Amino acid sequence: MKPIYFDFDRYDIRPDDAKILDANAAWLQTNGEMLLLIEGYCDERGAAEYNLALGERRAQATRNYLISRGLAAERISIAGVGEDRAVCTEQVDACWSKNRRAITLVKPR
């Protein structure tokens, strides 16, 4: 599962990321035994509580998109992670953009 990324302070799915989710959904439809956990992340800017809620909204937007592509809602759990577990720690825009993401983890039922 490829991750998707978000603009600063946003949780809407961008067109290029929709293509990634479409490919993820196609694979998941042929692998119906897999359960999903979508985790939503933020960059470090903003209060921890705000980032946790924004991360959850990003995970929920990703879940909603996959459901709109035919995946069963009961297969998909979400978690807002916020700014924890950054993949890049430099304090520059190029780095922050890597941390504004949603990742999809899969496991068998």
β-strand amount: 15-25%
Main-sheet strand order equals 1-4-2-3
Mean pLDDT: 95
For the termini, the CA-CA separation is 17 Å
- Overall morphology: elongated
Please give the share of residues in helix.
Answer: 40-55%
Structural class: alpha+beta
What does this structure look like?
The chain has 109 residues and is of the alpha+beta class. It is 40% helix and 23% strand. It has a 4-stranded mixed beta sheet with strand order 1-4-2-3. The protein is elongated.
Characterize this entry briefly.
This protein has 109 residues and is an alpha+beta fold. The chain contains three helices and four strands, in the order βαβαβαβ.
SSE blueprint:
Blueprint: E1 4-5, H1 15-30, E2 34-41, H2 48-68, E3 76-82, H3 93-99, E4 101-108
Parallel strand pairs: 2-3
Antiparallel strand pairs: 1-4, 2-4
What features would you highlight for this structure?
four-stranded mixed beta sheet; 3 helices; 4 strands; alpha+beta
